[in-house]
Amino acid sequence: MKRRTRTILIIVGVVVVLGVIIVANLKSKPSGEQVETKRVAYGSILSKVSVTGELRAQAQVNLQAQVMGVVERIPVKEGDHVNKGDLLLQLDRKSYEANMVSARANFTQMVSSFNRIESLHTAKLVSDQEFDAARAAFEMAQAQYDAARDQYDKTTIRSPISGTVAQANIKEGETVLIGTMNTSGTVLMVIADMSRMQAIVDVDETDVVNVALGQRATVEVDALPDTAFAGHVTKVGYMPSAQSLLTATTATPSTTFEVEVTLDSTTPALRPGMNVHADIITAELDSVLVIPVQSAGRREVKGKETETVFLAKEGKAVLTAIRTGRASDADLEVLEGLKPGDEVIIGPYKTLTKLTDGRRITAKPAADTTDKTTK
Q1: Angle between the 128-153 and 94-122 helix axes, to the nearest 10 degrees?
Q2: pLDDT value of residue 19
Q3: For residue 269, what are the domain limits?
């Protein structure tokens, strides 16, 4: 009897313990999806466009010959500084000089002949027809002489700007070719004014609408990883860049526009063609309502797709339509739909993507790992 009673007591004790454990588990079980929240507050927005490109001198000239000939003398070399008007290259001018002398002699003869015919025409000793023919011959001789002199002058190539000989592509004794409709001429030299440098960058079509003249930028050069240069936007292209046109026929075309960023300062280490990374600041806003970027998304509200967030209210997720403005890497400006103190659901990401309006939640404030100013 005692053994039976003991067995019953043991069974009753086990059942009681299991019941206590089950009740405790039921009480500790969350009543809904575990989510992280953050209160809407005023902050700052620093909106920027990050792009890549290359350096170029602000004043850079590709010199090409306008007449053919053999290079007779090159008094400069790469790296030399030249002033505007300095001699850069001299072509062999013997044939051009002979043409000029011949044209000048012919022109001198035509001047004498025309003056004689003009005197006779004034005295009405020659007809108007003869006078017109003499004048035409005089004008043709003058044009031929001017053209021959121009060709002769073009055998001497001088620097159009003050700067540095950045590239020399020709040597003494080589023949210079001029460009035609189907072929480009020889680029003899590149003269660049290194005192003013620019970053030439390609900006995507979705970002270029926010880029404007005068906006500040920070430029980093790959060759100088520990140095950043301040600059400002000086030109925004209105037509797609050459690189954009090349990718237009690919499976994933990308339309970009060329933007020039002029550096406020430079250093002798900078060279045209160096790769750069630039951040163009498109907006700086203070004291605006901000929310984390990841909390917003486009969802359907009343049959219309719009920008939305989920608010945590009375243990439920409430889908709320909002209107947004500028964005930074981490935060988004809110123009309508929220007020300071509203509790916005910001994560976890997997939960947020599957969350529905009215879903029960258990909210937990997210840890604040950043300062109050949005970067």
Answers
A1: 160
A2: 66
A3: 50-56+194-284
pTM for this entry: 0.67
Q: What is the band of 371 on the pLDDT scale with cuts at 50, 70, 90?
A: very low
Q: Phi, psi at residue 366, to the nearest 5°? A: -75, 145
Domain stops at, among 103, 130, 154: 154
Tokens of 57: 């001198």
Q: Are residues 278 and 203 in the same domain?
A: yes
Give the three-class secondary structure for 47: strand
* 3-state secondary structure (DSSP) of residue 349: helix
- Give 212-255 pLDDT, tens digit per residue: 999 999 999 999 988 999 999 999 999 988 766 555 555 556 78
Cβ proximity of 334 and 298 under 8 Å:
no
The residues pairing with 299 across neighbouring beta strands, listed in sequence order, are 306
Distance of CA 38 to the CA centre of its chain: 35
Counting Cβ atoms within 10 Å, is residue 28 exposed (0-12), middle (13-18) or buried (19+)? Answer: exposed
Q: How far apart are CA 297 and CA 307, in angstroms?
A: 6
Q: Are residues 276 and 302 in the same domain?
A: no
**Domain shared by 305 and 278, yes or no:** no
Percent of the chain with pLDDT over 90: 66
- Token pair 């498109």 is at which residue? 282
pLDDT at 150: 95
Residue 248: Cβ within 10 Å count:
10
